[in-house]
Specification:
Layout (H helix, E strand, L loop, with lengths): L1 H9 L34 E2 L2 E2 L10 E4 L9 E4 L31 E10 L8 E6 L12 E6 L4 E8 L4 E9 L5 E8 L8 E6 L5 E4 L1 H8 L10 E5 L11 E11 L14 E5 L4
Antiparallel strand pairs: 1-2, 3-4, 4-14, 5-10, 5-14, 6-7, 6-13, 7-8, 8-9, 10-11, 11-12, 14-15
Length: 280
């Protein structure tokens, strides 16, 4: 929760555009080494300019050929910066926007699917946060979930933050440290104050849904409603905590839909989408 108290404080304070409706694949042309500044990935915008990843090094973040869900490469991310603002990895921006219908957004659903695998075969307290970006690429838009290789919890687990209870809610636990796992996650923009939701399921299991904390915070403080067009990643642990070995990520897909009755198993044609496989 300390990280999210800092996140609340931060809310006070050259992307690759994918053409809407094309379903473009942005999965190839990746070099080994840092993901920063490759194919639209960067640390967000700082003063209007793309930044790199803050407080990472070659050992804590890189495109790698050591593991892959499909193909020959994936992205390894273990340690770095836990800021809710710029400086952490922001994915390439889609050419359509997510938000409530009355906000002027193109669609009301931001959907993502990704595969991950723990880098350590024993629990090591690694935590990575994943959430929606803001289109200005300088802040989080919430819907936050985390990968947690929890020693205290006794398992590899996935949790989502629910503003209804102001707590982490477990979506899956007891996950195999030696296997790849799929996360599906989507945000639903619903007209009205403080009612946008985020849902998640792991390996095709049951769906867990929570209230988006970022919208509630902005409403409570009379801040502007924000739109999204991509994802934001951050690490809970700094580069000095080398015992926390993080995760591999692969086959990251995300899309924007305009569908008031969205069902991930019966999704129609997205307004904009991309698939990232980190292939050379």
């Amino acid at each position: 929760m300390k990280r999210y108290l800092r996140g609340v404080q931060s809310l006070l304070s050259g992307a690759v555009l994918l053409m809407a409706g094309t379903g473009m694949v942005w999965g190839q042309g990746y070099d080994l080494g840092t993901l920063a500044f490759q194919n639209g990935w960067d640390g967000g915008l700082n003063g209007g300019n793309p930044s790199g990843f803050t407080n990472t090094n070659a050992a804590s973040e890189h495109v790698t050929n050591e593991e892959a869900h499909t193909g020959s490469q994936s992205w390894y991310y273990a340690r770095g910066y836990d800021s809710p603002g710029a400086g952490t990895p922001y994915s390439p921006s889609l050419g359509a926007t997510y938000g409530q219908p009355s906000s002027g957004a193109d669609g009301n659903i931001l959907y993502a699917s990704l595969w991950f695998k723990a880098a350590n075969t024993v629990l090591d307290d690694s935590v990575i946060y994943i959430e929606a970006n803001t289109t200005g690429r300088s802040d989080t838009n919430g819907g936050t979930f985390r990968l947690n290789s929890s020693v205290g919890g006794g398992s590899l687990m996935v949790d989502i933050y629910d503003r209804t209870t102001s707590s982490w809610v477990n979506a899956a636990s007891g996950l195999d440290l030696s296997e790849w796992h799929q996360i599906e996650w989507w945000m639903d923009g619903i007209d009205g104050p403080s009612n946008d939701t985020a849902s998640i399921r792991v390996d095709g299991g049951s769906i867990t849904t929570g209230l988006n904390w970022a919208e509630v915070f902005r409403d409570n403080n009379s801040f502007t409603y924000e739109l999204s067009n991509g994802l934001k990643f951050s690490a809970a642990q700094p580069t000095s905590q080398t015992s926390k070995q993080g995760f591999y990520f692969d086959d990251i897909s995300y899309a924007i839909y305009d569908d008031p009755s969205f069902d991930p198993d019966e999704a129609g044609t997205p307004l904009a989408s991309t698939t990232i496989g980190f292939e050379p």
